[in-house]
Amino acid sequence: MVNASVLIGTEPNGAPVSVDIEELLATRLLVQGNSGSGKSHLLRRLLEESATLVQQVVIDPEGDFVTLAEPFGHVVIDGSAYAGDEIARLAARIRKHRASVVLALDGLELEAQMRCAATFLNTLFDAPREEWYPALVVVDEAQMFAPAAAGDVTDEVRRISLSAMTNLMCRGRKRGLAGIIATQRLAKLAKNVAAEASNFLMGRTFLDIDMQRAADLLGMERRQAEQIRDLARGHFLGLGPAISRRPVAVKIGAVKTGAKNVVHGLMPLPTAQGADMESLLLSEPLAAEPLPRVIAEVEMPPVESGELLEQIESFVPAGEEPVEPPVEPSLFAAEEQSAGIDAILAEMAEEADCTFQPVATLFQDFTVRCRMARIAGHGLDITAFRRRFALAVAGVDARDPGWAAIVSAANGLADDLIAPFLVIARAAQTGLPCPDDQELCRIYGTNSLGRIRRLLEHYEKAGLIAMRTDFGGRRSIGIPAIGATTAAVD
């Protein structure tokens, strides 16, 4: 039986403090603490420890949690890069495919953040019944999305955002959505949203009104509320069925990831002073430099919505990874091949629209077909399967010596980029015209001609191909590694 408890820290006497994730899914969690009290650290610890147990959806207004992507496989969605209907479609796919995601809203103004989060949460909430899978929905800085009183936003925006948060906390449980909300001040958070949580982790706070509300939620007497003011950074008082039946002091444990571009503590001052510093500031004309943006931009370009949907569809839920022992991807290793596996891959590659299916779906189909063919232990993990399937789509025949040089030239390519290159190289080797863009779209698994053009540019920059267009407008593609060129074609 899988242990559903995760360790978040220790008591002052060293005893471990755990959170029961199954109980948390049914009872929800409220985290409160002033800025600098360690709320984000607590949320990060909880997310990291439970990443392999349950789907996670993070509403991240400051972009702090995007670092979960690399070590834990979360898909990062830049909220500023998509329209409202695209955000809704993304949320629907997330619910369907059980992808763990971080919705980064740091590129948006407050009203736009509230609208985007409301659209996203409402779509998660409105998913069809067969998609009501369990998921932790973490909302950092929840007082922004469920304010207790009208502030700098319009009544309409406040209403739709508050409604979405209320649905999450009040009615989300039956739909598998477990709200985890964090706020700097309880007094700024709508009471009907905070009241639905049954588990509490209260950090340092100084204002009397917030201390009193925290003490009431923890069942403490008024005179005991003073200890909330004395809590150190990273220390919390916990209570609830998923944590402890009595108030317990907990020091949050270490985390593996951290927020980007955050410097804690002091730094050495610059050595330039006086006239030297004045020279640095005033030596160049001010008009020559662009004004800095108030909101820092992520240097990577926004991902197209179609590509992001493919990432979500390809997401393998935590705990459902293939159980076959992983092996190193090998192209023609006889020990991992059989005529039956080759036949199954070739049969799948011939099916219409096979390249448009998520790799997780294809791998599951492949495993079922192997079982039906009584092939025990096919020896492929999902990474090796992805490469073998790409070879099958390209028509690679291990018995044909002509393929060896082509496959060798493609060894440095990512698995999702290899099939179109193999097809082009084979056409060059045999002197045939290069497949047109529509055929390359089918092989690559996309409907976007723009993506195929960018793919060819990527091949060319990597030195894999050399494109040439003659005066008649006919294109030919050379493959330097095999010294061959496709026939020219319009």
From TrEMBL:
Domain of life: Bacteria
Keywords: ATP-binding, Nucleotide-binding
GO function terms (MF aspect): ATP binding
Keyword ATP-binding: yes
Domain Helicase HerA central: 13-69
Entry keyword ATP-binding: yes
PANTHER family: HELICASE HERA CENTRAL DOMAIN-CONTAINING PROTEIN, HELICASE MJ1565-RELATED
Identification of the protein by name: ATP-binding protein
